[in-house]
């Protein structure tokens, strides 16, 4: 199961460098439960709302790089599997992004808790939540990374 989830994560990384349609193809719309990106306050409970979010992001990114690590797959029953993993993301925003982001790059590391379903098309995402570390932990890590001695 872990190898299949790793393949789905790799396909997800490739899809975010492509189009909204490629992202949508990795989801089971009928089994969709929720999607929570770290940078938005809302949790999307309707698949169409998640698709609209992905579509809006498509025009803002010049380049996207996603790297998944520490993937743990925990089968729940014959159809579903819980997944935890780390997500390293790096984005270069396009000139079409809001002015404060236009042509700038940023990145970070999040924890992802997801639900995968075994559909007729193979493994597909059914739920996803991104969580960064608490601010104090994140700031401490930034200071430690900047140490030059």
**Level-2 CATH architecture:** Roll
Helix content: 25-40%
The whole-angstrom Rg is: 16 Å
Number of domain modules:
1
Helix tally equals 4
- Spatial ordering of strands, largest sheet: 1-5-4-3-2
> What's the CATH class, please?
Alpha Beta
- The structural class is alpha+beta
DSSP, total strands? 5
Mean pLDDT reading:
90
Q: Report the sheet-strand fraction.
A: 35-45%
Profile the largest sheet.
Answer: 5 strands, mixed
N-to-C SSE string, H for helix and E for strand: HHEHEEEEH
Shape: globular
Q: How far do the termini sit from each other? A: 43 Å
CATH names the topology as Nuclear Transport Factor 2, Chain: A
Identify low-pLDDT runs. none
Draw up the topology in text.
Blueprint: H1 2-16, H2 20-24, E1 34-36, H3 47-58, E2 61-75, E3 80-93, E4 105-119, E5 122-131, H4 135-146
Parallel strand pairs: 1-5
Antiparallel strand pairs: 2-3, 3-4, 4-5
Any overview of this molecule?
30% of the residues lie in helices and 38% in strands. By secondary structure, it is of the alpha+beta class. The protein has a single domain, classed as Nuclear Transport Factor 2, Chain: A. It is globular, with a radius of gyration of 16 Å.
Give the structure's gist in a few sentences.
The chain has four helices and five strands, in the order ααβαββββα. It has 149 residues and is an alpha+beta fold. The longest helix is centred in the N-terminal third of the chain and has 15 residues.
């Amino acid at each position: 199961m872990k190898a299949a989830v790793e393949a789905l994560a790799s396909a997800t990384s490739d899809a975010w460098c492509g189009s909204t349609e490629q992202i949508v193809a990795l989801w089971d719309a009928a089994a969709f439960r929720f999607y929570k990106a770290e940078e938005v306050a809302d949790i999307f409970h309707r698949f169409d709302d998640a698709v609209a979010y992905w579509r809006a992001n498509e025009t803002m990114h010049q380049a996207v790089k996603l790297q998944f690590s520490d993937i743990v797959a925990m089968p729940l029953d014959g159809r579903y599997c819980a997944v935890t993993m780390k997500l390293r993301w790096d984005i270069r925003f396009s000139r079409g992004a809001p002015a404060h982001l236009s042509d700038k790059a940023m990145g970070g590391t999040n924890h992802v808790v997801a639900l995968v379903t075994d559909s007729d098309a193979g493994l597909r995402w059914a739920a996803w939540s991104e969580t960064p570390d608490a601010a104090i932990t994140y700031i401490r890590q930034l200071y430690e990374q900047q140490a030059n001695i």
